[in-house]
């Protein structure tokens, strides 16, 4: 029988981050077996019934998937405009998964899906600096001086990006277009698009090809696969 701290169980269930879960506990918003618990040292077993704000906490088996998100899909569990969302591809599984971070509506590529709130919060925290590689089809053919700016960091939205790894994968001299590989560890809004626009090469198409050690190998757009136990452990020990 696995005994865990209450705030960890809440975070794992996707209620909130561990710190936010601790705040809920100290505010008296959490009950265990019908009794209000406000001490942070409380530990619970799988048999204990936990309620948060009057709602019973459902503890599911932790699942982890690598998803090849297509373009034209929202990185969310629902959309008020009725557009397709990433969870539409996971109707065959019983667990309620959600995306780790996000990819833009018109960006395709690697997206992690899980119900492990603790791991999701960890992976999204800036201090872990997980490298993410993007393949960008751009208008124009950058020279080395332009790519050097990316490697040094460029100014966008009143801040300077961290140094990135960049290289040209292929070029089309006739159409004046290029395919660029760009590796960053930050994850600001529209960052890759803004970085390439800042050096004068707007993005026409964008795909995230890797996330840390994970790649899209063996998948086509719209497909997913479960992570192996070793892959999950590597992410947790990152």
From TrEMBL:
SUPFAM superfamilies: Alpha-L RNA-binding motif, Pseudouridine synthase. Belongs to the pseudouridine synthase RsuA family. Its EC number is 5.4.99.-. GO terms for biological process: enzyme-directed rRNA pseudouridine synthesis. InterPro entries: PsdUridine_s_RsuA/RluB/E/F_cat, PsdUridine_synth_cat_dom_sf, PsdUridine_synth_RsuA/RluA, PsdUridine_synth_RsuA/RluB/E/F, PsdUridine_synth_RsuA/RluB_CS, RsuA_PseudoU_synthase, S4_RNA-bd, S4_RNA-bd_sf. One of its GO terms (molecular function) is RNA binding. It comes from the Bacteria. GO terms for cellular component: cytosol. This is Pseudouridine synthase. Keywords: Isomerase, RNA-binding. It holds the Pfam family S4. Residues 4-66 form the RNA-binding S4 domain. The keyword Zinc-finger does not apply. The keyword RNA-binding applies.
């Amino acid at each position: 029988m696995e005994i865990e701290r209450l705030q960890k169980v809440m975070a794992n269930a996707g209620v909130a981050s561990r710190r936010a879960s601790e705040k809920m506990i100290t505010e008296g918003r959490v009950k265990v077996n019908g009794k209000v618990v406000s001490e942070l040292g409380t530990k619970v077993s799988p048999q204990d019934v936990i309620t948060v704000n009057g709602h019973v906490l459902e503890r599911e088996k932790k699942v982890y998937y690598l998803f090849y998100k297509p373009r034209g899909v929202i990185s969310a569990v629902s959309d008020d405009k009725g557009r397709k969302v990433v969870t539409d591809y996971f109707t065959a599984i019983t667990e309620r998964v959600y995306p780790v971070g996000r990819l833009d509506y018109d960006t395709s590529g690697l997206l992690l899906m899980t119900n492990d709130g603790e791991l999701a919060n960890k992976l999204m925290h800036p201090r872990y600096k997980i490298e993410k590689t993007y393949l960008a089809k751009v208008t124009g053919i950058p020279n080395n001086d332009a790519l050097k700016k990316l490697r040094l960091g460029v100014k966008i939205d009143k801040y300077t990006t961290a140094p990135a790894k960049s290289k040209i994968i292929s070029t089309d001299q006739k159409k004046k277009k290029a395919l660029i590989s760009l590796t960053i560890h930050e994850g600001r809004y529209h960052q890759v698009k803004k970085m390439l626009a800042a050096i004068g090469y707007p993005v026409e198409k964008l795909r995230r090809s890797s996330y840390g050690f994970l790649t899209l190998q063996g998948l086509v757009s719209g497909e997913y696969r479960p992570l192996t136990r070793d892959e999950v452990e590597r992410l947790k020990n990152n």
